[in-house]
UniProtKB/TrEMBL annotation:
One of its GO terms (biological process) is purine nucleotide biosynthetic process. Keywords: Amino-acid biosynthesis, Histidine biosynthesis, Hydrolase, Methionine biosynthesis, Multifunctional enzyme, NADP, One-carbon metabolism, Oxidoreductase, Purine biosynthesis. It comes from the Bacteria. It catalyses: (6R)-5,10-methenyltetrahydrofolate + H2O = (6R)-10-formyltetrahydrofolate + H(+); (6R)-5,10-methylene-5,6,7,8-tetrahydrofolate + NADP(+) = (6R)-5,10-methenyltetrahydrofolate + NADPH. GO terms for cellular component: cytosol. This is Bifunctional protein FolD. Residues 139-281 form the Tetrahydrofolate dehydrogenase/cyclohydrolase NAD(P)-binding domain. Belongs to the tetrahydrofolate dehydrogenase/cyclohydrolase family. NADP(+) binds at G165, R166, S167, I231. One of its GO terms (molecular function) is methylenetetrahydrofolate dehydrogenase (NADP+) activity. CDD domains: NAD_bind_m-THF_DH_Cyclohyd (cd01080). It holds the Pfam family THF_DHG_CYH.
Length: 285
């Protein structure tokens, strides 16, 4: 047996087409969603991500601004830029690329972003809204995971889900979203005893730990859905996930590849959030 592949690239393209059509209709009414991306420093991986986000904006008809600041930018200057973007009517979403240089306090920066423009969903109020179940801007990667499950007919309702990893950007929020979708959720992590045994109970496995090929074939219940959020760059330059894809694909029912799985969905959900923020800003349902 061999797993069906969850093609994140293809699903992402379908959603982008939906967004593109909606943006075109909005622009007829004089509304153009706008995204500001802020990059501090010259981290090469971040440069690539920022370029991809700007490209997505262009492809989908969004207005976009990329602010590239030198690595030695002061926290005060960065906060002043965010303040300006918060007040800018043509900007509906603000994304400050993480990680930031050491001398800048991440929390101060995230807290400064207007909740209405928090398209990453990282602001404490957005996190609180997620916890309560209020309709808010959801963090992009977790929202992408849910979308992949739903669009392949793998609704989490009534399923047992095991999330490996408890980070603020993936593990915790994806667990809350799975719970909201009526899954029974276990959050496993580096201190969980008998991890393979715990994972073997799962109908849905979400791996988000950042350890290359951690999840093995004998951890997986036959037929389970395996979603790999890990993006690890090996010494060879190749990307690899947290799941040992080749062997796990032999037992899983469904599996996401890396690249081409969750990654493309992250940027697509960012676009969806920016569109949503623009509609809210203009009082459009
Ligand atoms: N404020 C903030 N928000 C973020 O959302 C954010 C961030 N900072 N910092 C960095 C991480 C990483 N991230 C990715 C987005 C897309 C792919 C993606 O499209 N990956 C492709 C492959 C890309 C490649 O080849 O390198 C794939 O998996 O198929 C990956 C990673 C967003 N991040």
């Amino acid at each position: 047996m061999s797993a069906q592949i969850i093609n994140g690239k293809q699903i992402s393209d379908t959603i982008r087409e939906e967004i593109k059509n909606e943006v075109a209709a909005l622009r007829e009414k004089g509304v153009r969603p706008g995204l500001a991306v802020v990059l501090v420093g010259e981290d090469p991986a971040s440069q690539v991500y920022v370029r991809n986000k700007a490209k997505a904006c262009e492809d989908l008809g969004f207005y976009s601004e990329v602010h590239r600041l030198p690595a030695e930018t002061s926290q005060a200057d960065l906060l002043a830029l965010i303040e300006r973007l918060n007040g800018q009517a043509d900007i509906n979403g603000i994304l400050v690329q993480l990680p930031l240089p050491k001398h800048i306090e991440e929390k101060a920066v995230i807290d400064a972003i207007s909740v209405a423009k928090d398209v990453d969903g990282f602001h404490p109020i957005s996190v609180g809204n997620l916890m309560i179940g209020d309709d808010s801007l959801l963090p992009c990667t977790p929202a992408g995971v849910i979308e992949l499950l739903k669009r392949t007919g793998n609704s989490p309702a009534g399923k047992k889900a095991v999330v490996i990893g408890r980070s603020n950007i993936v593990g915790k929020p994806v667990s809350l979203l799975l719970l909201r979708e009526n899954a029974t959720v276990t959050i496993a992590h580096s201190r969980t005893p008998n991890l393979p045994e715990v994972v073997r109970e799962a109908d849905i496995v979400v791996a988000a730990v950042g350890v290359p090929k951690l999840v093995k074939k004998d951890w997986i219940k036959p037929g389970a859905v395996v979603v790999d959020v890990g993006i690890n760059r090996l010494d060879t330059g190749k990307l690899c996930g947290d799941v040992d894809y080749d062997e796990v694909a032999e037992v899983a029912g469904w599996i996401t590849p890396v690249p081409g799985g969750v990654g493309p969905m992250t940027i697509t959900m960012l676009m969806a959030n920016t569109l949503k923020a623009a509609k809210t800003a203009h009082g459009i349902g």
